[in-house]
UniProtKB/TrEMBL annotation:
Belongs to the GatC family. The lineage of its organism: Bacteria, Pseudomonadati, Pseudomonadota, Alphaproteobacteria, Hyphomicrobiales. HAMAP family: GatC. It comes from Microvirga aerophila. GO terms for biological process: glutaminyl-tRNAGln biosynthesis via transamidation; regulation of translational fidelity; translation. This is Aspartyl/glutamyl-tRNA(Asn/Gln) amidotransferase subunit C. It comes from the Bacteria.
Length: 95
């Protein structure tokens, strides 16, 4: 895939970058070099390679997922302007 001068101007417009007519050929060469490198990456055989999140092996830290009431509902309910039976009272928004 190669980029022509019209495409360079379009990319510059979409990126909101001011590009002079003198800069277009240089940018065209740079974009074509980048795309050439990306095409080379398509030739790499990645069959059997597991996706990774880092270059060093690591595992996610996990905690037990347990439901709790916070163990201090009185403190939490003190923030509410209106409560009823240990619940927040909110205005009805759906008819």
């Amino acid at each position: 895939m190669s980029v022509d001068q019209k495409t360079v101007r379009r990319i510059a417009h979409l990126a909101r970058i001011a590009v002079t007519d003198e800069d277009v050929p240089h940018l065209q060469g740079e974009l074509n070099a980048i795309l050439s490198f990306v095409e080379q990456l398509n030739e790499v055989n990645v069959e059997g390679v597991e996706p990774m999140t880092s270059v060093t092996p690591m595992t996610m830290k996990k905690r037990q997922d347990g439901v709790t009431d916070g163990e201090y509902p009185e403190k939490v309910l003190r923030n509410a302007p209106v409560t009823e039976d240990n619940f927040f009272v909110v205005p009805k928004v759906v008819e």
